[in-house]
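Appendix B. Chain record.
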Amino acid sequence: MTILVGASVLLIAGSAIALVFGWVSANESLIWTSIVASVAAAIALALAFMRSRKEAVVVQRRASAREVEDRVAAEEDSRQEVVGIQDSKRFHRPDCRYASSKGAQSMTKAEARDSGMRPCGICKP
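Structure tokens predicted for this chain:
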């Protein structure tokens, strides 16, 4: 897109120069060159605009998809059962070897995170 905008700026500058020299020297071919360059600049700007609109739609769709993924992950966290251990400030999967440690309590993943616990590095709940 940046290339299209840059090209249109150069075409506009070239068109202006050709128009001035065409008027001063009464050269019809320079005037037509100026017109053609102006039309090409307009086309380049229109293409850049359409491309930027497409990119904006793609970015918006990705953001919407991320929001949905985050919502689904949050719902899973609120339902997934883990075993939290206050002493180590870690939570584990119920089948983890550390889940049977002293002071282990069953809770949801969301509750464990809310109480300041971090996930186990071994079982990665």
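Further analysis of this model is presented in Appendix C.
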